[in-house]
Amino acid sequence: MVEAWYMDESQEDQRAPHRLRPNRAVSLEQLRRLGVAYRKLDADNYETDPRLKEIRRAENYSWMDIVTIHKDKLPNYEEKIKTFYEEHLHLDDEIRYILDGSGYFDVRDKDDKWIRISMEKGDMITLPAGIYHRFTLDENNYVKAMRLFVGEPVWTAYNRPADDFPARKQYMKFLAEEAQ
After folding, report:
1. How far is CA 15 from CA 31, 87, 95, 172, in A?
2. What are the DSSP E strand ranges found in 86-122?
3. Which of 3, 58, 107, 149 has the most CB atoms less than 10 A away?
4. Is the confidence at residue 155, as pLDDT, over 90?
5. DSSP symbols for 125-156
6. CA 91, CA 141: separation in Å to the nearest integer?
7. The pLDDT value given to residue 180
8. C-alpha angle with apex 29: 26 to 33, nearest 5 degrees?
């Protein structure tokens, strides 16, 4: 089961857990109210998993690839890690399925506070278009993930501030509706 919590303000190693003391856990329901969807799947059998096949069909995830983030596997590793950790948004949903290893997705809550989502093997997350977020490896320094897209992949990240994009405005409207 995925675990999430509010982050401390420390600027130390981004790969550390950065939990507040005392810990302030965040539930799946709280993530859902931010538009974040979570599923647990069978990563050992992803190539033949009927549940993954059904999710891809139902959500129209027609394109996918697999990326390995590790210093020995990813060209320009240090540069990419820094880029992934820059606060940004996308104009489309971001869907990631962890096939091996682990890492963190950080998302902003409605009050602009960071929530850290610990992802490990079998976890699938969907971040809605327009949500400010970032990614980092954890202290294991390795993750293998499936990236899924509706149609052709769009890799463009828009670093904050990016509040004028229609996707951001639509996301803010969603948050306002969820608050009622």
Report:
1. 21, 15, 21, 29
2. 88-89, 94-108, 114-120
3. 107
4. no
5. EEEPTT--EEEEE-TT--EEEEEEESSS----
6. 28
7. 86
8. 100
If we measure between CA atoms, which residue out of 55, 26, 35 comes closest to residue 127? 35
Residue 65 β-bridge partners: 147
In which band, very low, low, confident or very high, does the pLDDT at 151 lie, cut at 50, 70 and 90? very high
Task: Specify the pLDDT at position 125.
Answer: 98
Q: Which two tokens stand for residue 147?
A: 């990236």
Chain centre to alpha carbon of residue 57? 21
Locate 142 and state its tokens. 């390795």
Question: CA–CA separation, 75 vs 83, rounded Å?
Answer: 13
- What's the pTM? 0.97
d(CA 131, CA 115) in angstroms, rounded, equals 12
Alpha helices in 28-165 (DSSP H): 28-33, 50-59, 77-84
